[in-house]
Please model this.
Amino acid sequence: MGLFALIISVLSSALSLYTFANQHFNRLYRLGISADNFMPNIKEEILFARITFINESSTPLTIYDTNILDENGKIFAGNDGQLIFEKRTVSSFFRTGISVMTDESTSLLPITIAPYSYSSSFYAFFLSGESAETIYNKSTYYLETETSHGLFVNKLTTFSFNFEYETRYNKSRLMRIYWHQSKWRKFFNPEFQNKLKLPKLVKIKRNKEQ
Model:
């Protein structure tokens, strides 16, 4: 009888430890970022882009700001690449005079993404002169995103012919989402971390959210 009770006690302790570890692991951040539907408007000096933020953790995640960086992962001179904190109607205007108007408007930051959910909206970035169309036709720029877990940088693939590919689980596939996750998640599931050489990641400190 004593041995049976001991076995039950050990199993109960092991189950409690597993539950605790699993809950803690799920709280560790994993952020997915995807950008598409780019629309340059050189008349308004804006590049519109639909950006999707995915929160694959059991705790909320806040997006404070996002900006476009140059081909070296550095901040542009002046205000180029900065997010416009005003609602704008999504549209495009090219050098050729071709233009497109939509009935969509841009969203504003900051936003808080609930656990295991996502946010997908258009955002507007200031780019002087014809820079918006220049970036639209290339794939050598970066997107910087400031979050409640730090500052993250990933490749910005704007033009439809400039695709990025990754190998995951021994299969090559089109890279649609760039993942950023905690060190422990990287250790236990490294396949979710994109294997690209990106500009050095910078951590920032913020007061914990109430």
